[in-house]
Amino acid sequence: MVAQEAEVFAKIQAVLDTVDPNKPDRKVVHVFKIKITQNGEVVKTMMLDLVKIKFYEGDDEAECTMTIPDEILADVVLNKAETTGLITSGKVTVDGDVELAKLLGATLSQ
After folding, report:
1. What percent of the chain has pLDDT above 70?
2. Which residue of 12, 20, 58, 84 has the smallest Cβ count within 10 Å?
């Protein structure tokens, strides 16, 4: 994903930039950890805090952790793949609430 990393991270930030933190009926108000892998090894861990509306590299506590290959993360964020099917097929693993992971995938692919 090195070639696409900037594009993927910019798209995630663009989605965050559309979030109104004062909107009382926001659907996704959770903290996510995204472990990005290459060849089965974690190469980067990103935090997506939808409470504070922040996206950053780190390894903090999260309500849901997704482990996802770099190219699949790119496909999800760039609207080329759908999270639910990837979770069901085992290409994406989830530690925590699977429904939150599905909701995050839908949010990122806006």
Report:
1. 95
2. 20
| Cβ atoms 92, 72 nearer than 8 A | yes
For 2-108, which CATH superfamily applies?
A: SCP2 sterol-binding domain (3.30.1050.10)
Mind listing the pLDDT tens digit for each residue in 33-78? 999 999 999 999 999 999 999 999 999 999 999 999 999 988 888 8
Q: Both tokens of residue 58?
A: 């780190």
Nearest alpha-carbon partner for 76 in 31, 27, 20, 11: 11
Q: What own/partner pairs with CB < 8 Å and gap ≥ 24 does 10-14 have?
A: 11/77, 11/78, 11/108, 12/48, 12/55, 12/77, 12/108, 13/55
Phi, psi of 104 (to 5 degrees): -65, -45
Domain ranges of the chain: 2-108
Q: How far is CA 49 from CA 9, 18, 39, 60, in A?
A: 14, 14, 26, 10
Q: How far is CA 96 from the centre of its chain?
A: 14
